[in-house]
Amino acid sequence: xxxxxxxxxxxxxxxxxxxxQPNPELVKALSQRRPDVIYDEAKVPPYTLPDPxxxxxxxxxxxxxxxxxxxxxxxxxxxxxxxxxxxxxGRPSEMTFEVFDLDRNALDGKVTRKQVRILFTGKPDGxxxxxxxxxxxxxxxxxxxxxxxxxxxxxxxxxxxxxxxKPIWDRAKGQQVMPSEDTRGSSPSIPVEKIIAxxxxxxxxxxxxxxxxxxxxxxxxxxxxxxxxxxxxRPPDAWGAISAWAWGLSRAMDYFETDADIDARRxxxxxxxxxxxxxxxxxxxxxxxxxxxxxxxxxxxxxLSRRRYGETVAIINxxxxxxxxxxxKRFSNREDEMxxxxxxxIALIAPRPVYVASADEDLWADPRGEFLAxxxxxxxxxLLGTEGLPVQDMPPLNRPVMGTIGYHxxxxxxxxxxxxxxxxxxxxxxxxxxxxxxx
Length: 439
Ligand code: GTR
What we know:
Layout: H1 2-13, H2 24-33, H3 64-84, E1 96-105, H4 106-109, E2 111-119, E3 128-136, E4 143-150, E5 168-170, E6 175-177, H5 192-197, E7 201-206, H6 221-226, H7 241-256, E8 262-272, H8 274-285, E9 291-295, H9 313-319, H10 342-347, E10 354-359, H11 367-383, E11 401-402, E12 405-410, H12 418-432
Parallel strand pairs: 4-7, 4-8, 8-9, 9-10, 10-12
Antiparallel strand pairs: 1-2, 2-3, 3-7, 5-6, 11-12
The chain binds beta-D-galactopyranuronic acid.
């Protein structure tokens, strides 16, 4: 009897609807605040996802060879031309690195700190990105490293007085300003000491060093330096800001390959929110990243666009017209016409481990849509001989699942928290087969 009821309940709930459920009070409050936005699961329209294992010409992908030779390049090209835009490929020949700080006894002697200026065009007056690197002294070199961009400048991630302060963008004014000393350590979303204690290095750079985050972005940063068409109309598949930031992450990887203290084969790229979208796109394109982590990346990141739950393609294209290429605007309110969806972005990372994380109160980012995208990437992970995602349904709160695809939904808001970091280090321990693990 109980069983029959359970089966009936499961059928009513529908595929993928079990496990975690959003707080009904929150759903109600958010729906009242934004009646134009779907927060109620019952209002999600029916949709069919494109099959990651069926090519545009109908060919079924039944072997890894077909995936690598035909379907993967095709999907990559779709995201390049229709969504994020096409960035210059590979390491710029004129790029140089300038290690302007090296302290092997930083943070009470436990850490090696390096600061490296990456001169994208080799010219000191051209665009440059400062990479701040902390490496543990107590583990054997070369060390695995977590790489992430930050929102407010390297000096905000830690109070270390040696971090060089560089101008940051004032988004309202569209100009660069010199931050004040008292903003050191003001945005502590990287638990440096905890990461070091677990035997990992961490490297970060300010995303605005690559390109500013406002609609007029294309006149500045790497766009101004690399776009041959600067001043003319940009092509509809020209790189958007997310593509530029992802490109910057690959340039950090170019540097890692030259640094004997860093294990460039064990670099985890991660990002939060818009920088989570960025991390996914960087990891999808650049196979040198060993593990890719999306923290609350939502629409345009890990969440399925077709669900239209929380932030939608139309909303994001309007609010952030510079994030994606012009072609992507055609899909505002026309999600069903997209020849791809975000599960295929995750699939591009296969067979490398990928972790998608959501937050219980972050319904704007559509936690269920993030889980379902990870799940819909699973057939590709399986085809390539990995474990994929070990569960069918969303796990309950704070119960991470870790196969080749990892997923958790934690309590709390849209943020990159210590809980998230701990899970990402657990995941890296598992995949890098490290026993050093927890202190
Ligand atoms: C929001 C945006 C999201 C997310 C977030 C963030 O305003 O709607 O897509 O990226 O910003 O980056 O913090």
